[in-house]
Amino acid sequence: MWRKIYFYKQKQSTKLVKTTQEIVDFPLRICNFIEQLTKMIPSFQNIHLKFQLDGNYFNREELKEVAYSFVKEGKPYEQIMGDFLIDWLNDKEYIDVFTSGSTGKPKSIRLSKQAMVHSALATGDFFGIHPGDAALQCLPSNFIAGKMMLVRAMILGLELDLVVPTSNPLENLEKKYDFCAMVPLQVENSLKHLHNIKTLIVGGAPASNSLVESLQGVSTNIFATYGMTETITHIAAKPLNHLPKGEKGHYKTLPNISVSVDDRNCLVIDAPRITGEKIITNDVVDIISETEFDWLGRVDNVINSGGVKLHPEQIEEKLHLFIKHRFFVTAVDDEQLGKKLILLIEDEKQKLNTAALLKTIQNSKKLSKFEIPKAIYTIKKFVETDTGKVQRLKTLEVL
């Protein structure tokens, strides 16, 4: 049943700009307000006419009731979504979220709700998402990726279905979806069912070479995304399949976003509709143009071994040919080299023949002499964040 949705005018604050953060955000807020007047860009207080949640239409007030019901009576994943909905549907212009903690301790940051709307609109433009399209929410809603799936649905007018965030979310589903977001582990466990999704974005961690290879025969349009909590999920994406043989995709920015590098060759993001100031990252990149780049790795992971700078992420990409377990390369102190490259492998049963593996790597000629690990160690279980990302430094401390 179609329901008439009333759009509410966004309340404009008349309070004086008093804090440093308000001074930074003020131009962004003015820009947002002008755009809404001239281009009819929706406010964060709008709920799209075609938005559905689990097959039902809701306006703003009805959605508040759903949120309270989720919190009071829902399953754990619904309770988390209910908490977010309550925060989203209040009259505050911002929302507080936690970072993933993959590069340090999780921290609370404040995001503009209107900036989250702009992020949703940019995603819709980039991937060709239309009102009435079916979307699946299979990510936990306690972090930004899961929250933004709901925001996109409310702003773009999607028919959003919720499922328990498991490692195999498509296992018992037959319905076809136009859009979905997953982490690599979910993709790996859903290969037989991916044909039911038209467009899939993959984030949270890099997709391994072996996973990318397994996606080449899949009809789904699959993209790796680049982003972080501070950029309100992805600001760029690259295709993982349907590419000419032998070619690799480059990250291309979403609309109204440009990139450059600083003196460390680290990515600098200019996204005026999402944040009031440029974001300087610790990600080393090759810039192709102001809207395209290749990601090389994190500057804080770079290993200087005997004067040679090594990017662990690039080495790991080559090592995926030989290792089926989870792993990463890092470094330990060495008197001769300063830092010595080592390989850490997650092996719960501790049955891996590390000597044989090292010999295979050395004889493969796939890695330069500097990229070959000087030693291999196994650990029963890697230390992870709440979102399943490996914490390299803390794992190394366990060794």
Report on this model:
The chain is globular. The protein is built from ten helices and 20 strands. The strands form four sheets. It has a 13-stranded mixed sheet with strand order 2-1-6-5-7-8-9-10-11-15-14-13-12. Strands 18-19-20 form a three-stranded mixed sheet, with helices on both faces. It folds into two domains: 20-298, Rossmann fold, CATH 3.40.50.12780; 302-398, ANL, C-terminal domain (GMP Synthetase, Chain A, domain 3). With 399 residues, the protein is an alpha/beta fold. The longest helix is centred in the N-terminal third of the chain and has 20 residues, at 20-39. InterPro entries: AMP-bd_C_sf, AMP-dep_synth/lig_dom, ANL_N_sf.
Key words describing this protein structure:
399 residues; alpha/beta; Rossmann fold; GMP Synthetase, Chain A, domain 3; 13-stranded mixed β-sheet; three-stranded mixed β-sheet; globular
